[in-house]
Amino acid sequence: MPKLLLAAYATGIVLAYFVAPWEASGLFTVTGILLLLWFLLRKTAFAWVPFLGMLFFCGFINTHQQLEPPTGVTHISRQTNNSYYLVEALVETVEQRAAGGYKILTEARQIFSENRQSSLHVDGKVLLYIKQGEIKVRPGQIIRWRSRLRKPYRFGNPGEFDYPLYLAAKNIYVTAFVNDAVNVVAIENHPARKASGIENLRLELAEKIEEAMPENQAALQQSLLLGMRAGISTGQRQTLAESGIAHLFAISGLHFGLLALLFFQAGKYMYTRSQRLMLWRPPQKVIPLLLIIPLAGYLMLTGNAWATRRAFLMVSIVAGLIVCDRRIAPFNLLAMVGLVLLLYNPLALFQAGFQLSFAGVAGILAWMPDLQKRLTGVPARLRWLLLLFLTTLCATLATAPVLIWHFHQLSPAGLITNLVAIPL
């Protein structure tokens, strides 16, 4: 059933991308028809059919709602015109770009007219691009800058990256550009300033890595450990993509699995030292739930990307199932996680990270069980090496269509390079 639910909802999302939103009368009519069908079929074996229709319809409506900015009169998207504004906003994240400059995600608070004769309280996210210069701002600070406010747009070239869709998936509908960092001012001791412990810790760790390592290696370590990829140069990105190990620098299931294993072994060691705890419950019934806390912290520390969310949700659900002595088919688990993420953000379906994450796991779940059976009787060391190779092969084949569609590139070299890179 989770697979059917996911299919219905995802189909509605895809349709919304190609079909214009309906008028209110059409929405009410379809809703009424589906409710009537459910009432007529509620005691039959086909009662689930109208429910799937409702889920399909929900995907369609939710997607259109997220494709367009909120309709509130105070939303910052209503101020996108050719006028210059003095913008006051709360810093949420700060990323230094490999090509120079910064990318700062902010939550708008107030805008002032160019002559400062009038002001307006606003809300909504603004992505601020700074072309050059150095800036020392932290998440939680209030900053001001002067610029135009723009809606993201496409150039209309065939096959180009859909940047407005990418930003809409992050609830960003407005961008701003400043030529130099000196034009951005941090307001000290502003009453609207907020504490942002996780993001500040992330920045501090990134700075420590930058200080301790050569410049060409620091960006790779920041990506590998903290999920901060903005500092990776174009040449490094190309090298990682061609070698087939770019996935290792996106926090995902591999990182979460290793971290969960480390925490489990450490927790089990400490748990088994207590006779009282051992008499109370076996460690495998308690430790999996306790793992959710540090893993949730790591999720927030590494940027909360789609692949990371998928891995965290799967680990959390599996932990709950272990504690409750319940089982679930792997594909149903994957479908359940996918549905939860799409209910939260339907536009995630169009993101490359979301597609690659789920395609890779689906390929492994589909092909590896049969391949593992064929390795019965193979010596342990050779079997481990073959399992690593076959797992990489399954993930590579499953993600190949997504890689070709989004990046126009395929990296068969990854079948060999991952044999060395993953153990390291």
Strand count, sense and barrel status of the largest sheet are: 7 strands, mixed
The helix/strand order is: HHHEEEEEHEEHHHHHHHHHHH
The structural domain count equals 3
Low-confidence stretches: none
Query: End-to-end distance, in Å?
Result: 39 Å
Count of strand segments: 7
Quote the beta fraction.
5-15%
Shape: globular
General description of the model:
The chain has helices spanning 2-18, 24-41, 48-67, 163-168, 197-212, 215-226, 234-243, 253-271, 275-280, 287-301, 306-323, 330-344, 352-374, 380-407, 414-421; strands at 84-96, 102-112, 119-121, 125-132, 142-148, 172-180, 184-187. The chain is globular, with a radius of gyration of 24 Å. The longest helix has 28 residues, at 380-407. Strands 1, 2, 3, 4, 5, 6 and 7 form a seven-stranded mixed sheet that branches. It is α+β, with helices and mostly antiparallel strands and 424 residues long. The chain folds into three domains: 2-67; 76-195, OB fold (Dihydrolipoamide Acetyltransferase, E2P) (Beta Barrel); 247-421, no CATH class. Helix 8 runs parallel beside helix 11 (306-323). The chain is 54% helix and 13% strand. Strand 2 (102-112) and strand 3 form a beta hairpin. It contains 15 helices and seven strands.
